[in-house]
Fold this sequence. Notes:
Strand content: 5-15%
Number of helices: 6
Largest sheet: 2 strands, antiparallel
Oligomer: single chain
Protein name: MarR family winged helix-turn-helix transcriptional regulator
Order of helices and strands: HHHHEEHH
Helix content: 55-70%
Pfam families: MarR_2 (PF12802)
Structural class: mainly alpha
Distance between the termini: 18 Å
Domain HTH marR-type: 1-135
GO molecular function, one term: DNA-binding transcription factor activity
Shape: globular
Amino acid sequence: MPDELQALGRAVKYAQYQQHRALDSRLATAGTTLAQWDALRAISRSPGASARALAAATFQSEQAFGTLAGRCAAQGLIERRPGNGRRIEHYLTPAGERVLKAGHQIADEVLAACYSALSPADRATLLDLLQRIGEGGGA
C-alpha cells in the first residue's frame, strides 16, 4: 500500500508538472508566465485584494507574491494602491486585462490537450476526487 500511495502522489505531481510546463511555454507567447497569469486571475477575481489574500489564492508566500506583484506593476499589468493602514490593494490595468484574456484562451487550449485522454465523465470524476482530497486538508 505505501508504494501504491507514493506512486499515486508521484503521478499527480507529474501530471501537474506537465500541465505547468505546457502552460508556461504557451503563455510566453502572450508575454507572460504562469505565475504572472495566475496572479492576474486572482486579482481579477478579487479586485482590491491585499497581497496576503492574493498570496494565499496563488499558493505563494507573501514575500514571493510581493516580488511578483512588483514585476507585474513594472510591466504595467497591475496597479497597486494604498488601502487602509499598511494594506496595499491590487487592481488590473487595461494591459493586464488583455494579457489575462489572452491567457484564458491559451489555458483553455493547453488544458484541453492535457486532459484529452479523459472522457468528460472521467474529467468530472477526477475533479470530484481531487476536490475531496483538497477538502480533507492533507498533511
